[in-house]
Amino acid sequence: MALSVYPNNSKQVVLKDGTTYAYAYFPPKAADQPVFLLLHGFPSSSYDWHRQVDFLASKGFGVLVPDNLGYGDTDSPHEVEAYSQRRMSGHMFEILEKEGLKNGVIGVGHDWGSTFLARLHLWHPESLKALVFVSVGYNAPSDAPFDVDAINTMTKLALGFSTFGYWKLFERDNAGQILDEHPESVLSLIYPAEPETWKTDFGPIGAAEAWITSDKTTPLPSWLDEDFARTHQEIMAQKGYTGPINWYKAQMQNIDIHLHRDLPEERKHIKLPTMLVVSDKDYVLPPKLQKDRTSPFAKDLRVEEVSGGHWIQLEQTERFNELLESFALDVEKRAKK
Description:
Elements: H1 2-5, E1 10-14, E2 20-26, E3 35-39, H2 50-58, E4 62-67, H3 85-98, E5 105-110, H4 112-123, E6 128-134, H5 148-159, H6 165-170, H7 175-181, H8 183-190, H9 197-201, H10 207-213, H11 226-239, H12 242-252, E7 274-279, H13 287-294, E8 301-306, H14 312-315, H15 317-335
Helix pairs in contact: 2-15, 3-4, 8-10
């Protein structure tokens, strides 16, 4: 969707391994101004960052915003193995190289984009000068198998409800088809009018499937309009949900776990300036858990908590934009000392 949303600044490129990516690039107004790399999550595209793109570009910052693998105008392979985080990190590094961004960008990741950013830092640390994790904290590389059942058990004991119950739906072979057949109910569940919906109808095991297959819908939240909803649905209808759900399947199948064995401990830590932005009503990704998973590994960490649910860049646009600008200015100021 980068091609149609940002027609004057978008590109579609074929990378060395034959994968096609679409992205938009807005060069900085001055050579010494930083460039932001905005990595979206599920189920989004470069379009979910449009309020940040407009703001940051107006301030003179550079912005590179891709449709990640599986989304929009980028390829959407059906094979789970294609969604290796190391492979996708290589893709993003190649795109940065194509644009001559060799001095490091400020990486910003939301949702799955946060995990993507963490792996870009692991495999290509030279590509970054600072990191911003949004909603999802730093996911340190580990050779311990990912176990969604253990997470659901743990969160139910700690919080009173499971938080990753929807992963059990996404684990199924026909998960993409189920979501494709009920687009309006998926929209209502993913972008809920009330954040508490995720506590009752998304996180608990079986709840997401019940909501989606019953075609339940609710009004749009106050922070979204009909234009956004229509554009979002057009984007997701392009290639469907199978590719996006493969990000989950790849994690549950531990396809990269062998790459994390025998990593030196120092490779797991972030020495660059880092900011974590969380929200007080994200019931699937509680802010305390995100702080706890990030702080042991990020030496130079700033934490900001805002009011609202999961979609911080959409719900708290003005505040979030201010945080990005102030963080970038601080990073640049410190670099010049």
